[in-house]
Design a protein that fits this description.
The complex is a heterodimer of chains A (252) and B (141).
Chain A lengths: L1 H20 L5 H8 L21 E7 L11 H8 L24 E5 L8 E6 L5 E6 L16 E7 L2 E7 L19 E10 L2 E9 L8 E10 L9 H4 L14
Parallel strand pairs in A: 4-5
Antiparallel strand pairs in A: 1-9, 2-3, 3-4, 5-6, 6-7, 7-8, 8-9
Helix pairs in contact in A: 1-2
Chain B lengths: L11 H5 L9 H4 E17 L6 E7 L5 E7 L3 H6 L12 E9 L5 E3 L1 H9 L8 E3 L4 E2 L5
Parallel strand pairs in B: 3-5
Antiparallel strand pairs in B: 1-2, 1-4, 2-3, 4-5, 4-6, 6-7
């Protein structure tokens, strides 16, 4: 744990320095670097003693899939080559795949019972105003799942880390605007750890045997902001993506 | 104040190659090599997600009025920065700078300019300026 805190602190420091010294590719990273630093203090805890994940969390850094391009299988490269940025489902207010919730804030609530929590709910402000439910009552994934945007999630605790195991995704959503694909065979394991009062880390294992040669881990560092709230965000309300702005397709 | 149509085609985008990787595909819709500055009177404020829009009527040299629109960040982003839907009044004269739509339509997006200013490490960038010179509606900290 101590090592991970030090590594995280160095990562945050590096990102901050990078934002001022050079021009990183991620505009949200730059924006984050300019905000006031996250609050400090011990990990807030629930009456059960488990960490409280209910403070609104914002992406600070990470989640970049480009670094794993070398692991892509030919099928993934082919699919990606046939996509262009104007087709990204994200731009049409469709749900994002795990872990592409950034740069939108999210928070995690647990239900309160006289026994350990049986459900966790991740509330997402955007890209669509939505939620995922995580079953923590010991059930397993069903033998068969019809594909869905968010899949089927089961969770458990490993010490103070919330581990969320998800299968049953559809293959429609993209990992990023480049068109990085995933298949219905995608299996994700998210590990949420609240490092302290102001920082939440989400380490996500991506295992997609149809698209990548081997599993890999994406680390997302988020800033938690006590006092902030998830705001209403109805993507369909004003979405005019491409309406009037895109030139007509070139004649063939 | 006479409303004027001023188009300043400064090829800043070519020099800096603004990366626009996150959030919506601004680069696909708007051309960072075609920043425009336009002055007109506010005709409509759309205070919505995922992107707010301000429409304003611009009178050309021939007297013809063209309605432009500028796309801003999400309403939620603006509100978290302290702005609300009443920041601009209908009829108020504003000067707006942004990247023009790739279609050539009288539509622009201010976020590319803001991102560039942010990356340069300068002061906050205001895409909209009131007639008295007061800047308004910055999106990025």
């Amino acid at each position: 744990m101590r090592k991970s805190i030090i590594v995280s602190a160095l990562a945050v420091l590096s990102v901050t320095l990078l934002a001022h010294a050079a021009w990183p590719q991620d505009n949200e990273t730059i924006s984050q670097a300019r905000r006031k630093p996250p609050p400090t203090g011990p990990v807030p805890r629930l009456p059960s003693g488990k960490p409280d994940f209910s403070d609104v969390a914002w992406l600070a850094s990470g989640g970049n899939f480009k670094q794993f391009d070398a692991l892509m299988l030919p099928l993934a490269r082919k699919i990606m080559s046939e996509r262009n940025v104007t087709q990204d489902p994200h731009n049409f207010c469709m749900p994002d795949v795990v872990p592409r919730q950034a740069p939108f804030p999210f928070r995690i609530f647990f239900n309160y019972t006289d026994k350990p929590a049986t459900h966790a709910v991740i509330v997402y402000e955007g890209n669509i105003h939505s939620f995922r439910q995580i079953f923590m009552d010991g059930r397993k994934h069903p033998d068969y799942l019809d594909p869905t945007w968010y899949g089927h999630s089961i969770g458990h605790w490993e010490m103070d880390t919330l581990v969320v195991d998800t299968v049953g995704f559809n293959d429609v959503s993209w990992y990023d605007g480049r068109g990085t694909p995933h298949s219905e065979k995608l299996h994700t394991i998210e590990r949420y750890t609240r490092l302290d009062k102001g920082r939440l880390q989400d380490k996500v294992t991506i295992d997609d045997p149809l698209m990548y040669a081997k599993p890999f881990e994406v680390t997302i560092n988020a800033t938690t902001t006590p006092g902030d709230e998830v705001m209403e965000y109805i993507c369909q309300d004003g979405n005019q993506y491409g309406v009037g702005t895109l030139p007509p397709p070139a004649p063939k | 104040m006479n409303s004027k149509l001023l188009i300043a085609a400064v090829v800043i985008g070519l020099l800096f190659g603004v990366p626009l990787s996150a959030h919506h595909s601004v680069a696909g819709e708007f051309d960072p090599t075609k920043p425009v500055t336009v002055t007109g009177a506010v005709s409509k404020v759309e205070w919505v997600n995922p992107h707010s829009r301000v429409h304003f009527d611009v009178k050309g040299a021939d007297g013809k009025v063209t309605t432009w629109s500028v796309e801003l960040a999400a309403r939620n982003v603006l509100e978290r920065n302290g702005w609300h839907g009443n920041a601009l009044k209908i009829g108020e004269v504003i000067t707006v700078t942004g990247d023009q739509a790739r279609s050539g339509a009288p539509m622009m997006n201010a976020r590319g300019r803001e991102l560039e200013a942010l990356q340069k490490g300068g002061a906050k960038y205001y895409p909209i300026v009131r007639a008295d010179g007061t800047p308004v509606l910055f999106e990025r900290e």
